[in-house]
């Protein structure tokens, strides 16, 4: 049987106690039921790590392994509950519970099976059984049903969400995949993710809402806003390349009345679904142009202050990512003061974070693998990619958002006139 070092368990217990003491002191001084939205990210990480370490320590390695192995059934129960609208039909959080007999009649599915699915969801705190066979939603189920916040989670457990389980089969057949879209998703659907969205306006609109919904667990809007203010970029054109529904521009626009936000995307459906509900005050400030980022940026009569790629490059394998970046360069040449902003994950280097803290970023990396054969990148990988696209591109700043996965704002500049300066220097020397 496997044995473990007792000191590591003791260390985990001592660390957990230390964090629990801090938590108890904080909550005693400021009692709140909504601690999760006020806790600072560093304390949150420390507490999560302590809780995780202690849970690992009190379980045997076999139990720990099985937690991961059987995790797929947690996903499956949620998937079934969403697909069959079980969670729509049980009682609301804090309201009257509904019996599984009633739910099963409404949705026309076996009560026994509905009951068993709900039981596993209850074990995962998604729903609550208030009396035998009577159910109501808990917070996670309410989030799942939220039209914006729940959209991304809905997509991941929806008809476009089951591909990660075939990563192993795909790599067995294609041991060295290098091309974007040579991936489990395309293999199963016979079309790329973007093609599937183009053919399905409802799924496209849901995806657009999902992107926005994810903003509840990261801090892209405040970080971009701060960048614009700090750098005095409050007038001109801000291009959101591959901007989808333009939700980020809609949130930024009210604070920057002299900036025109130009949203470009190949799929106009996400924007169409959103723009109909845009407040009239923003109609002048937000524009949409159908545009493929595989073609060069069009010239702009008004100075461009920044070009944004938010969650674009992580959808593409290196060769395509390089082509996409190269199409930004002409706009940087025409607008020498413009910044190229990449808002994407920046994976930590080995040892920079605890492995447990990397979990969400690594899950996203495998999302990119299964949907696109694309990837998340570390700072060194971003630097290499940019250099390969154009020697003059350099990272001048990386601001971590501190939230979901490893989201960061990478500021890139095109080094100015470097060659010409060298040539001038040589000419000067020759003259002397
Ligand atoms: C992951 S989403 C990110 C959307 C948005 N930037 C955000 O952060 O919410 C990627 C976007 O790239 C768009 N896209 C895919 N292929 C494209 C292409 N060839 N040209 C322009 N946009 C494209 C998709 O329609 C989608 O809106």
Automatic annotation (TrEMBL):
<feature type="domain" description="O-methyltransferase dimerisation">
    <location>
        <begin position="67"/>
        <end position="145"/>
    </location>
</feature>
<dbReference type="GO" id="GO:0046983">
    <property type="term" value="F:protein dimerization activity"/>
</dbReference>
<dbReference type="InterPro" id="IPR036390">
    <property type="entry name" value="WH_DNA-bd_sf"/>
</dbReference>
<feature type="domain" description="O-methyltransferase C-terminal">
    <location>
        <begin position="182"/>
        <end position="389"/>
    </location>
</feature>
<dbReference type="InterPro" id="IPR036388">
    <property type="entry name" value="WH-like_DNA-bd_sf"/>
</dbReference>
<protein>
    <submittedName>
        <fullName>S-adenosyl-L-methionine-dependent methyltransferase</fullName>
    </submittedName>
</protein>
<keyword id="KW-0489">Methyltransferase</keyword>
<dbReference type="GO" id="GO:0032259">
    <property type="term" value="P:methylation"/>
</dbReference>
<dbReference type="InterPro" id="IPR016461">
    <property type="entry name" value="COMT-like"/>
</dbReference>
<dbReference type="InterPro" id="IPR012967">
    <property type="entry name" value="COMT_dimerisation"/>
</dbReference>
<dbReference type="InterPro" id="IPR029063">
    <property type="entry name" value="SAM-dependent_MTases_sf"/>
</dbReference>
<dbReference type="GO" id="GO:0008171">
    <property type="term" value="F:O-methyltransferase activity"/>
</dbReference>
<keyword id="KW-0808">Transferase</keyword>
<dbReference type="InterPro" id="IPR001077">
    <property type="entry name" value="COMT_C"/>
</dbReference>
<dbReference type="Pfam" id="PF08100">
    <property type="entry name" value="Dimerisation"/>
</dbReference>
<dbReference type="Pfam" id="PF00891">
    <property type="entry name" value="Methyltransf_2"/>
</dbReference>
<keyword id="KW-0949">S-adenosyl-L-methionine</keyword>
């Amino acid at each position: 049987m496997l044995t473990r070092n007792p000191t590591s368990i003791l260390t985990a217990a001592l660390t957990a106690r230390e964090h629990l003491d801090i938590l108890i002191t904080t909550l005693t001084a400021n009692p709140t039921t909504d601690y999760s939205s006020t806790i600072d990210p560093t304390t949150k990480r420390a507490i999560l790590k302590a809780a995780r370490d202690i849970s690992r320590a009190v379980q045997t390695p076999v139990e720990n392994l099985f937690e991961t192995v059987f995790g797929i059934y947690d996903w499956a129960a949620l998937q079934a509950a969403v697909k069959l609208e079980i969670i729509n039909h049980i009682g609301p959080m804090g309201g009257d519970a509904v019996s599984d007999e009633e739910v099963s009649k409404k949705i026309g599915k076996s009560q026994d099976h509905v009951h068993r699915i709900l039981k596993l969801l209850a074990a995962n705190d998604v729903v609550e059984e208030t009396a035998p066979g009577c159910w109501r939603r808990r917070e996670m189920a309410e989030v799942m049903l939220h039209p914006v916040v729940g959209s991304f989670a809905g997509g991941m457990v929806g008809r476009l969400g089951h591909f990660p389980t075939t990563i192993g089969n795909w790599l067995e057949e294609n041991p060295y995949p290098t091309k974007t879209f040579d991936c489990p998703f395309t293999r199963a659907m016979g079309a790329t993710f973007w093609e599937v969205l183009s053919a399905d306006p409802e799924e496209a609109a849901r995806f657009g809402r999902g992107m926005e919904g994810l903003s509840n667990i990261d801090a892209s809007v405040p970080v971009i806003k701060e960048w614009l203010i700090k750098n005095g970029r409050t007038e001109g054109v801000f291009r959101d390349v591959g901007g989808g529904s333009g939700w980020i521009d809609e949130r930024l626009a009210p604070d920057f009345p002299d900036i025109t936000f130009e949203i470009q995307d190949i799929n106009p459906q996400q924007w169409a679904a959103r723009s109909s509900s845009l407040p009239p005050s923003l109609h002048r400030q937000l524009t949409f142009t159908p545009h493929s980022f595989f073609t060069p940026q069009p010239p702009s009569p008004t100075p461009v202050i920044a070009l944004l790629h938010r969650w674009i490059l992580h959808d593409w394998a290196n060769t395509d990512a390089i082509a996409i970046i190269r199409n930004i360069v002409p706009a940087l040449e025409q607008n020498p003061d413009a910044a190229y902003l990449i808002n994407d994950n920046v994976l930590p280097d080995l040892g920079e974070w605890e492995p447990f803290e990397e979990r969400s970023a690594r899950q996203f990396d495998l999302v990119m693998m299964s949907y696109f054969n694309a990837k998340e990148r570390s700072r060194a990988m971003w630097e290499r990619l940019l250099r390969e696209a154009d020697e003059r591109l350099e990272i001048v700043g990386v601001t971590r958002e501190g939230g979901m996965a490893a989201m960061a704002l990478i500021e890139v500049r095109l080094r100015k006139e470097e060659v010409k300066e060298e040539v001038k220097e040589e000419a000067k020397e020759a003259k002397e």
